[in-house]
Write a structure and sequence with these properties.
It is a single chain. It contains ten helices and five strands. It is an alpha+beta fold and 426 residues long. A five-stranded mixed beta sheet has the order 1-2-3-5-4, with helices on one face.
């Protein structure tokens, strides 16, 4: 909780004390601002009343600037009817300056204009009265105690406001930078979580299923087969973990980054899933129905060329979606065939973008035997990957084909590829 602003500032006390001390010193030496010819013959200490008033007003020059200026104007006018004190005029000039610097914006705009008009009026009035060039000195003195302090206050106030604006902009920039940093950290943590889940979950799911089968079935051959699968997945999972840790560890740039998986590795991924899911009655089939390179609009190449290349982010996302879908089939699918289909999307009818469609279908229902628990993190990760590429993701049960199971579980992802993002043909 912020403390209230003090009514009297410490610097104002020093200014008032210095002004009063200098005024008393001048009075003690008999130094006045005018001679003995004054409109009202005020003698003695009474001539110090305006000085005491303006020095007292200096105490509230910050907290009550407009009030101090109004009362100070009356005091300096009264001082003109006495022999006067130079410090009274100096302290009044400080009140004009303070009213511009510490007053509201309206006062900061009006006071310089008002003092300028007063200076012009006083100069013209005394010129018309005295009709001598010396009358210009009165206008100069008036400008020195009114207009010049007001203009100085405008300059100082403008610099302070510019400094406050720059400081506020710097604070906002720092705040935005901190927000960007936090968002970047959160995005990186999410990416790391997706990679960790996709790289290891498949092996751990297979280990969980076959270890449960080995414990629940009293068959030496089944136990040996299960232990073989467990060992194979343990070794591969450990290798994946070591690669991930190597990416996260600060290696100083001496190690080459691990190559990202590509769609060419789907064959090995499907074969591994078939080994892991054979005990559960699952079979796997990979159907690559992508358009060949030569069939792309404007593509160069001989007939029978391989599938059209896609950018690395799309290829990695497709690989991870297939990997996670196969992991989920090991956990939840009924016995039957699991199909992985890759198709080209777009690029027809003048469409300027092409893409890749990934579809994984598996029998849906309750199956007997051991299965690994699921947390739903895999679906979240796949949805995030597709969203980052601006694609469409669907996952859920749908009616099966005629003559097949009543329902199947389908994972379908449409990954767009902009024309500018296509990799050049070899």
């Amino acid at each position: 909780m912020s403390l209230p602003r003090p009514l009297v500032h410490r610097d104002d006390v020093l200014i008032a004390a210095a002004g009063l001390a200098c005024g008393l010193l001048l009075w003690s030496f008999g130094l006045h601002s005018r001679g003995t010819s004054v409109p009202v013959p005020v003698e003695g200490p009474a001539v110090l009343v305006p000085l005491f008033v303006v020095t007292a007003l200096a105490l509230v020059r910050r907290s009550m600037p407009r009030t101090a200026l109004v009362v100070g104007t009356l005091a300096v006018v009264a001082d003109q009817f006495t022999r006067g004190s130079l410090m009274t005029v100096v302290m009044f000039a400080d009140l004009v300056y303070a009213a511009v610097v510490y007053g509201p914006p309206a006062s900061a705009r009006r006071i310089p204009v008002t003092t300028g008009m007063i200076t012009i009026a006083v100069t013209l009035g005394f010129l018309a009265w005295f009709r001598t060039p010396e009358a210009l000195l009165i206008g100069v003195v008036t400008a020195l105690i009114t207009f010049l302090p007001a203009v100085s206050g405008v300059v100082v106030r403008s610099h302070r406001e510019a400094a406050d604006t720059a400081r506020l902009r710097a604070e906002q920039t720092a705040l935005l930078a901190e927000m960007d940093r936090r968002e970047a950290v959160t995005a990186e943590r999410s990416r790391m979580a997706r990679e960790l889940h996709d790289m290891v979950a498949n092996h751990l799911s297979a280990i969980a299923i076959h270890s449960t089968a080995a414990l629940s079935l009293d068959d030496p051959k089944t136990s040996r087969d299960a232990l073989g699968v467990i060992r194979e997945n343990s070794v591969e999972g450990l290798a994946e973990m070591r690669r991930l840790i190597g990416l996260l560890r600060d290696s100083g740039g001496h190690d080459e980054p691990a190559p990202a998986p590509t769609l060419d590795g789907l064959d090995a991924l499907v074969r591994q899933a078939e080994v892991n899911g054979g005990a559960s009655g699952l079979t796997f089939r990979l159907a690559d129905e992508r358009a060949p390179e030569a069939a792309r609009p404007g593509a160069q190449g001989a007939p029978g060329a391989g599938p059209a290349a896609v950018p690395a982010p799309v290829e990695l996302a497709a690989y991870r979606i297939v990997q996670e879908s196969l992991t989920n089939t090991l956990k939840h699918a009924d016995p039957g065939e699991v199909t992985v289909v890759l198709r080209s999307a777009g690029g027809e009818g003048g469409n300027k973008s092409m893409g890749l469609t990934v579809e994984v279908t598996s029998p849906f229902g309750e199956r007997p035997g051991p299965r690994a628990p699921g947390s739903g993190a895999g679906l979240v990760g796949m949805r995030e990957r597709v969203a980052l590429l601006g694609g469409v993701f669907e996952a859920g049960p749908v009616p099966g084909p005629p003559g097949g199971p009543g329902k199947i579980w389908r994972v379908r992802a449409e990954l767009p590829v902009a024309e500018d993002d296509k990799e050049p043909s070899a």
